[in-house]
Structures are given as C-alpha cells and as structure tokens.
Structure prediction request, 340 residues.
Amino acid sequence: MPDLTLEDIAIQAGVSRSTVSRVLNDQPNVRKDVRERVQAVIESTGYHPHAAARTLASQRSWIIGLVIPQSVSFFFTDPYSSHLTKGIAQACNQHNYTLALFLVDTKEDERKIFTSITRKGLLDGVLVQSGHDGDQQIIGHLVDANMPQVVIGRPFRSDNVSYVDIDNSNAAFNAVTHLIRTGYKRIGTITGPEGSSAGLDRKAGYIKALNERGYSLDESLIIEGDFTESGGYYAMKKLLSAKPEAVFAASDVMAIGATRAIRESGLRIPDDVALVGFDDLPIATLSDVPLTTVRQHVIQFGAKAFEILTDLIENGIEPPRHIIMETELVIRESCGASRR
Prediction:
C-alpha cells in the first residue's frame, strides 16, 4: 500500500487537511467529535506523520506576519485594510497564533522588514496584502527564502505562489451589466490604479460588460483612481465633464469621494447620476443614499488567507494554491433601479 498522506486521512474523516494537522499536533479549537473521528481514521489506517514534518512542527514560533504595503497613517484610515486585518486577527486568536503587523511604505521599510521576517525562527509564515506590481519584490524574496506565504489579492506573477482573491473581472462585469439593464446608456467608471491587478481586472469587467451589450467604448468615461476617497473625488470631478448617466467606482471608498463631487456640482444621486461601488464596507450604508455595491466578505477573506497559510506551514508549500472567493451584487438606492 502506498504511503498515506494528510489528504487521504482528511478524505476518509470528511474534514479538511488542516483539521487533520491540528489533531496530529494536538492543537485546540477542534470539536471533540471531529477530533475523535480523525483519530479513529488514523488508528484504523496505521497512519504515521512524516518525521521531518513533526520535527518542524516542534520548532514553530506560532507567530505569523502580515505585510501591508501602506503608510501608518493610511492604514489606520483605510476601512478595507482594517476589516481585512480584523478577519486575520480573529483567526489568529481562535487558533492560538500571534499576529505581527509590518507596514511597508518605502524601499527602506522593505529592506528592514525583509531582514526581520526572514530571520530564522521568528515567523512561521507570512501573509502579504498585494495585487500591486511594486509588491513583487517582497513576494519574490519570500519565495527565494522558502518562507510559507499567502498573497492576499492576485499578484502579477503567481505561478509559484499561493494567493486568495475574488474574481474581480466578473464581479465588475455583473455590476456594470446591472446598470445597463437598468437603462443607462452613458456609463462611466473610476478605475483602480493601473499598477494594481484588482484595478486592471475591474476595468476589464467594465469593458467586457459594455462590449457584450454593443456599447461603444468612450475613453472620456474612464478615469483612473487610486482606491482613496480623495482619488474618487478628483476622478469624479473630471468624469462629470463627460456627462455620465451612471458611474461604476472600483471601490466603496472612491464611491464616497465621487458622491461628494457629484453633490458639490449640484447633482443628485441617483436622479442625475447613478452610482455603484465595490467592497460593501460599512460606509456603503452610511450615506443619505445607500450605495449599491459588490459585496466581498472582507473579514472572511482574511480568515481564509490565514487558513491557507497555516495549511502551508503544516503541510508544505507545494504546489501553490489559488483560492477564489465569492462575491455578490447588493442593490440599494444609489443605482436608481427602484425608480425605473
């Protein structure tokens, strides 16, 4: 009989591979009935964990790093990052890990932080919030150091690295298609930055929706933003000269900035300009006109990234795993669907 693997035990027990690993390493937060079921399969099959893997487990620090390419001031004002970190921190607490946060704003930060996070015995693994082309160096350094890592957001080069993301293109396609079905003809967009995979993918979804409905592409209706409130505000100021009937903003934060610009121009949402965002952060419902938006479950997103990372730590980093989480379009008043 060939050597059994964790996957074999997991399948027979009807649990995940990471759950089997937690049972083998006598970790807490496994239900009694699940633990007993896994142990029964282990006993019946005569499974023995790989000696090297058990040795590695005994050398763990039980600390994981979270690398976020933002300044300190931006991190503490960005609702997306705070919700993502909340999901990761909650998962760490549940599984008795300590979370170490590293904010990278400059090349000097990157140099210092890389020295720290790759120091032998300091961290068991690293989560990297990415999706920007400038983050590839950090990711590549971690690959070279053979450090378990999960990238949050699809990196530009992903063949040899695990990541967790959503289908940004399809989510944007669904949002813009909804605006088309609602009856709008001149639909603009405030994109994410061109150096961001999420920004590029959401722009591609916008273009695909227009193409599939036979709409011609009007470059004056496409303005690049930067995922900030001020970026959305200034992008919307430019976009208003093209007289859009509706706008798809590639983040809720930019949509809030766009809302301010629309109102300063004496226009109303959705009577004069309909608006759709992306993320469904709590700010989406705080405006006088609640925001129609694409919901991605950001806290669960962070928890899933943690789950994959601990699986890599416990069971090896090959082959890379690419996990795509679900999204949904949440229709509220800002798109004007209820008035048409």
